[in-house]
Amino acid sequence: MLAGVMWNATVPQLTNGVLDVVVFVPPGAVLGVATVWSGHAFAPERFSWGRGLIGAVVGGLVMSPLLAFLVAFSAAWDRASFPLVFPLGALLAIALGLGVGAVGWVFRWAVNGRSSAAGRGLTPGSDPGHGPSRS
Fold first, then answer.
1. Per residue in 74-88, pLDDT tens?
2. DSSP H helical segments within 1-135, as ranges?
3. Of 16, 60, 61, 80, which has the highest C-beta tally within 10 A?
4. What is the CA radius of gyration of the chain?
5. pTM for this entry
6. What are the tens digits of pLDDT across the range 21-65?
7. CA dist 97 → 9, 37, 106 (Å)
8. Domain boundaries in the chain?
């Protein structure tokens, strides 16, 4: 739904309509794959090309109007900043993916660390070398 709203808002603003936005589908798809891939940096065994495909589709649909807007805005505002839009967008996608991956890793570590400690009979007051405390 968000992608539809973004496409409907963007297309009338551009000279060639849908064609101007479609040009940004491949870079959006690459940013989507980069975001998913970097999101799995802390758990690489969980990455699959199926998840990468979902990231590419979502990136192509959602990022295309956003990239078109950013390119048009940067070109209209300051022509010298125009070449920086794509590298900054790529760095932002990788940073967001790493951030999401780090948060997910910390969350899994906290949940798995507590459950594995509880499974071994360890409690906050126990000694790991001697099992649960018997006081």
1. 777 777 777 777 787
2. 2-10, 18-22, 25-39, 49-58, 64-77, 85-119
3. 60
4. 22
5. 0.57
6. 777 788 888 888 888 888 888 888 888 989 999 999 998 888 888
7. 26, 7, 14
8. 17-96
